[in-house]
Amino acid sequence: MSSRPQSQRDPAKGRDEEAVRKYIESLALTLTQLGMQRMSARVFAALAVSDDSRLTAAELSEQLSVSPAAISGAVRYLDQVGMIVKERLPGERRDHYRLYDDFWFASTLKRDRMVRMWRDATVEGIDAVGPDSPAGVRLSHMVDFLDFLVAEIPRIFERWEQLREQREHPPEG
Amino acid sequence: MSSRPQSQRDPAKGRDEEAVRKYIESLALTLTQLGMQRMSARVFAALAVSDDSRLTAAELSEQLSVSPAAISGAVRYLDQVGMIVKERLPGERRDHYRLYDDFWFASTLKRDRMVRMWRDATVEGIDAVGPDSPAGVRLSHMVDFLDFLVAEIPRIFERWEQLREQREHPPEG
DNA sequence: CACTGATTTCACAAAGTTGTGAAGTTAAGA
DNA sequence: TCTTAACTTCACAACTTTGTGAAATCAGTG
Questions:
Q1: Among partner residues A53, A104, A149, which is closest to B145 by beta-carbon distance?
Q2: Sorting pLDDT into bands at 50, 70 and 90, what band is B100?
């Protein structure tokens, strides 16, 4: 019993397609719980494991076993939030969808926008309950925290960039 | 025309109930878009604007115009993720639900758990596509970033605590 | 220990979301 | 300009989620 009957790694391809499919669904599930639409999450995951992070709608449709219509809707969303680009080389029939390498920024910028919305809504609330009431004071603290967060997000990414650069060009050659 | 006919600020109460209700819905909407369940978001918002951040199920039910059953479900969730506490003073009939003042921690800890899940799922993915394939390299970078994030989150809160302390006890008395 | 008010659970109805097939639109190549 | 492959849009059906009323459970109080 040294072979794996169901989850077989094909030496030619170098990847265990069964496990890849499982991973796609597992990553998609996590992203869904984080608030991403189901199909968009699956498309995202499929692109992430594709070797050149670039697939056509037809390939996505086949790999995920869904209709082209579903792909169309999913990529529209991913495009809007800036996580993928649609590419068509001159003289080509089909679009390719590419994952942004720095999609972290894109997805986090979206969250940043939400925090700002939260903050702005809360400022309205302070006025409504009265700035000096206990609730008003509490809401003011909330705004302080949200302002802090908004200011902090760019710093986090700076730090990540630094760290990445250090890894790619270590101090000692 | 110096009075506001619909959105009236009652001097006795010191708050514009109409505007408060609007704020509750607006905050709830934002939180929903951030991934919180609708009713839980409304309960959270209602507690945030209540003067002592403490309401009974009946009060919540009335203020939000929903059944006690709906409140029951919403507070169960909020309790699970640690954003509220259920309190009943000895010799009382009804529970009070209180907003954690440092609910930021709770809500962010939940997100932290998600990031870890994402990270762990991705490690599985690396094995599936082969660590040396282009996809494998890309997924490794993803893991690096997620590890960075997980490490960063506690530091952010440390910084917030410092800032808050400075505000409350400024260097010059 | 029975009574009563409060909360939770459960089955179901209403509302919302998601993916499909089919029809419509766009653009490359003859 | 016509043909055709590829993508998008739309109405609808399947599925999921959410909130309700009614019944059950729980906890104080006489």
A1: A104
A2: confident
**Torsions phi, psi for A97 (to 5 deg):** -110, 130
pLDDT of residue A81: 81
Task: Give the span between the Cα atoms of B51 and B48, in whole angstroms.
Answer: 8
Beta-carbon contacts of residue B128 (< 8 Å; ≥ 6 apart): A15, A16, A19, A20, A22, A23, A49
pLDDT > 70: percent of chain A? 86
Do the beta carbons of residue A72 and residue A61 sit within 8 Å?
no
Structure-token match 């992203």, residue found: A31
Q: Is A162 on the interface with B (CB under 8 A)?
A: no
**CA A167 vs CA A50, A131, B116, B150: distances in Å:** 24, 49, 22, 18
Query: What is the mean pLDDT of the segment spanning A30-42?
Result: 87
Q: What tens digit of pLDDT does each residue of A115-151 get? A: 888 899 899 999 999 999 999 999 999 899 999 989 9
Q: Would the CB atoms of A19 and B104 count as touching at under 8 Å?
A: no
B132-141 long-range Cβ contacts below 8 angstroms, 24+ apart: B133/A14, B133/A15, B133/A51, B134/A51, B134/A52, B134/A53, B135/A15, B135/A48, B135/A49, B135/A50, B135/A51, B135/A53, B138/A48, B138/A53, B138/A101, B139/A48, B139/A49
Q: Using CB atoms and an 8 Å cut-off, which of residues 74-133 of chain B contact chain A?
A: 101, 104, 111, 114, 117-118, 121-122, 124-125, 127-130, 133
Sheet holding B84-87, edge to edge: B54-56, B96-99, B84-87
Query: Which pLDDT belongs to residue A4?
Result: 43
Interface test with B, best of A7, A16, A27 (most B CBs within 10 A): A27
pLDDT band at B90 (very low <50, low <70, confident <90, very high): confident
| CA proximity to A121, closest of B88, B20, B2 | B20
- B133's CB contacts (< 8 A; 6+ apart) are A14, A15, A51
